[in-house]
C-alpha cells in the first residue's frame, strides 16, 4: 500500500500544475496522472456529468494502478464531485478548492480576494463559501475565464495573443481593489506570467496546487501512507483520452522530469472500469 502510486486526474494538462508541486515536495512518491482531454472542457458541463467522469477515472486508476490516494487536480471536478468521491472511495481523496481557499485567506492583507475559474466552479460558489468560512471579513470577486483553458491546452502561454486574451478576460477584476488572486482552475498557473502582466505586480497570485501538495504530504503521514522505500526509483505514468503527442509537448516543457510519454486511453475503457466496479 505505502509504495503504491498517488493518482491525479484533470480534464487535461491543467492538473500537471498540481503534479509538479507534488513531485517537488514528494520526490520519492510514484504518481499516475490522467488527463481527460477527449472530454475537455469540464467547465461548461453539469455537476452530475463531471461527477460521472470523475467516478470513471477513479475506478480506472484504482483498478489499473491500485492508487493509495486520489488528488482531484481539477477545480471543476472538485466542486462537483469531492464529497461524493470521499464517501464512495476507500482511499483518501483530496481536492484543490479547500487548500486554495486557505492559501488565499493567508495571503490577503486587505481582505479583497479575486478568484478566476471555469463557469462550473464559479457557479458552484465553492471558493466564495470556503473563503468566507475561513475568515468572514473577506470579500470575494469571482470571474469565469474559460478562454484561459483553451490557451493553456493550445500551449499558447506567452504570446502577444495570449496576453491580449488574458488581459480581456481578467478586465472585470480591474478597480475591485483585490490584493490577492486565486488561480481557481488548475490550467491557469501555466499562464501565470500573462495573468500577472494583466493584473499588475501588486496583486499576489495564489496557485492552489502548492497548498494541495502540502495537504497531500500531511495526509500521507497521517494515514501512514508515505513511500518508505527511499531507494525506490520514483516513476510517473501519464494517460490521456486525447492526443498523446500534444500532451507530451506541454508536459515535457512544464515538468522537469525524464521525457513524458503519455499512454492513450479510450473513454470506453474508463466507462468499462466503472461498470466493472458496479458489478463487484
Ligand atoms: N482544469 C480544470 C479546473 O481546474 C478545468 C478546465 C476545464 O476542463 O474546463 O477547473
Automatic annotation (TrEMBL):
Pathway: Cell wall biogenesis; peptidoglycan biosynthesis. SUPFAM superfamilies: Aspartate/glutamate racemase (SSF53681). It comes from the Bacteria. Its EC number is 5.1.1.3. Coiled coil: none annotated. It catalyses: L-glutamate = D-glutamate. HAMAP family: Glu_racemase (MF_00258). This is Glutamate racemase. It comes from Candidatus Levilactobacillus faecigallinarum. The lineage of its organism: Bacteria, Bacillati, Bacillota, Bacilli, Lactobacillales. The gene is murI.
